[in-house]
Amino acid sequence: MRKALIALTALALLAGACQQNSKSSDNTSDSTGESKVAKLDVPVPVFQADSAFAYTAKQVSFGPRIPNTPAQEKCADWLINNFRPWADTLYVQRTTVIGPKKEKLPCINIIASFNPAAKQRVLLLAHWDTRPWADEDAFDKTKKLDGADDGASGVAVLMEVARQFHAQKPEAGVDILLVDVEDYGAKNNENSFCLGTQYWAKNPHVKGYKANYGILLDMVGARGSQFYMEGASQQYAAGPMKMFWDVANKQGFSDYFRYENYGSTITDDHIYVNTMANIPTFDIIAWQANGNFAPHWHTQNDNMDVIDKKTLKAVGQTILQVVYTQPFNY
Residue ranges of the Peptidase M28 domain (predicted)? Predict the structure, then answer.
């Protein structure tokens, strides 16, 4: 993933103001005036971390999921074949996007919709492609990487979530968006990243598509991960983000979900969902208090050795808790 980290004091202050404003709301309706779903007293499925781990490993087994490679097509087919029986409706967007060197890149976005008629909706998204080169590697920056954490882990969590949605339908509407060609960009051009998301934001799977808010998963599977409150997420989606963090902490996942805000913003898919699709979206992404990503980021060490079932569980169980019991209580 592209991921420039920029310290922005003003953004942090604005995020804090947004957070204060969200607390003063009566939380009875969304920005369109639609009534929200109240807290629900329903049993919450148990997120199976073993399944998420296996889904991660299966993606890695195809090889790096790079545009214009057999691994891209094989993994896409596998994802589609898994999501089709789980979802109420499945959409597949096949298009061509233009890379940073003007190269044509096949792009496959996959959208699984649950309760498609529900007006109140949550968008869950992750990218499923792999960066074509390990350009942060200390030894060989031209080598390919597995992308076990950066890409596969987020998709794996959403696969297990979708499996649970199929077994026990939530009351809220949910759309799972798997975006392609996220990580092909050039460091000197931030907008050359997240090309699948940019395409979807301009061409949603349903005309006029809206969701109350979105949750982006990116690097959510590594051992010892910590998820800090990212700056742009607080700017655009402070209320839903704090709700999610509160639920995670109440579930016993405080070691993972940290309330600290170091004033850093990350160029990730949520930026384009916020600014182009106008859906308030926050990013769950592992990074360190010093503003750096984990040492395995964009290196050959991003493989199955870094994936931890406890981290997958912390993220996935919190998603299920939020969606089933208080999807719009923020």
Answer: 109-323
Question: Tens digits of per-residue pLDDT, 281-316?
Answer: 999 999 998 889 999 999 999 999 999 999 999 999
Query: What is the C-alpha to C-alpha distance for residues 217 and 177, in angstroms, rounded to an integer?
Result: 11
Map tokens 């006029």 to a residue.
Answer: 208
What DSSP designation does 103 have? -
CA 148 to chain centre: 14
Which two tokens mark 34?
Answer: 């639609």
Q: Which residue shows structure tokens 């979530």?
A: 161
Residues 6+ apart with CB under 8 A from 188: none
pTM for the whole structure: 0.91
- Please say whether the beta carbons of 97 and 199 come within 8 A: yes
Q: Which domains are seen in the chain, by residue range?
A: 5-325 (3.40.630.10)
- CA-derived radius of gyration, the chain: 18
End-to-end CA distance of the chain: 29
- 10 pLDDT above the threshold of 60: no
- Rounded-to-integer distance, Cα 75 and Cα 84, Å: 14
Tokens found for residue 124: 């869950």
Share of the chain above pLDDT 90, in %: 85
Query: Of all residues in the chain, what percent carry a pLDDT higher than 70?
Result: 88
